[in-house]
Specification:
Layout: H1 6-15, H2 17-37, E1 42-50, H3 52-68, H4 80-89, H5 91-100, H6 124-134, E2 135-139, E3 144-151, H7 154-193, H8 200-219, E4 227-231, H9 244-273
Antiparallel strand pairs: 1-3, 1-4, 2-3
Length: 274
């Protein structure tokens, strides 16, 4: 096994110091140009929790009511959390959100979000792609969803994310109300179809309890929100752009080690060729 001669290694690097310095300098200035070109982006984040405890409680109560009447009610096993995540990322939801709040005007801005772009220059598909790149949706696997939105303006990042949460909450609330109505209708249908199997007293009790349950559901103000905002959208004070001093030091180190390694490879190749 060949041993590495460190002394000879440093001598080779010293002899090629001008080449290394030139390459490092060129690479460094290129990285500075890239840094100047980088946009100031701001990310607002939020954590929302699906208040499915209400949904589960409702399903359990209705199932219990049906069992009191001697009916087996099969509850739906759809994941509302997964449905919400899919809706947020869907083309229809995003385009409707963009059009409702006129976000399309700012999506193509290159320098600042305040530079408006004519809506006629931006198709639905392009708007969807741009907004999707700005949005990050993460299922935390604990009943919550983390949302992050990145724009060129901190106020827009916070405002757009707030509107997104309001819209998805409104949609999921409407879907929940539909589920409630469907569940009640199904239970009524089953009670009617199985009336011969249910005693008069039992049926009366069941239907009275059911009616009270319906009244409670629609009177409960907590059902007005399907999502509980654990961590509201923040106002990002600092951009995602790297700190200049750290960027400079990191660029210098990477450039130096990259060209030093490249010089060593070239010198080793030349010696082996001889």
């Amino acid at each position: 096994m060949d041993e590495i001669d460190l002394k000879k290694l440093f001598i080779d690097l010293y002899n090629k110091r001008y080449s290394i310095t030139l390459g490092t300098t060129i690479s460094f200035f290129l990285s500075l140009g890239y840094y100047a070109y980088m946009a100031e982006e701001y990310t607002s984040s939020s954590l929302i929790f699906l208040t499915n405890s209400q949904n589960s409680s409702m399903n359990d109560n209705l199932s219990n009511l049906s069992q009191l009447a001697g009916i087996n009610l099969i509850s739906k096993g759809d994941s509302k959390l997964e449905e919400a995540k899919m809706r947020i990322e869907s083309r229809l939801f995003i385009i409707n959100l963009i059009d409702k709040y006129e976000f399309r005007n700012y999506l193509l801005s290159n320098k600042t979000q305040e530079e408006e772009v004519s809506q006629n220059n931006l198709s639905d598909e392009t708007s969807y792609q741009i907004f999707s790149d700005m949005l990050e949706v993460i299922d935390e696997k604990n009943g919550s969803i983390k949302l992050s939105l990145t724009t060129l303006n901190p106020s827009n990042s916070k405002y757009w994310l707030e509107k997104l949460i309001e819209e998805i909450d409104d949609i999921m609330k409407k879907e929940l109300n539909k589920d409630i109505v469907n569940m009640i209708d199904y239970l009524n249908e089953q009670l009617t179809l199985n009336s011969s199997k249910v005693s008069g007293v039992g049926r009366s009790i069941s239907m009275n309890i059911q009616q009270q349950m319906v009244n409670k559901i629609f009177a409960d103000e907590s059902i007005n929100k399907t999502f509980k905002v654990i961590d509201p959208p923040n106002y990002p004070e600092f951009s995602n752009k790297p700190i200049f001093l750290r960027y400079v030091i990191f660029s210098l180190l990477i450039s130096f080690f990259m060209f030093s390694f490249l010089i060593l490879i070239i010198e080793s190749f030349k010696k082996n060729k001889k």
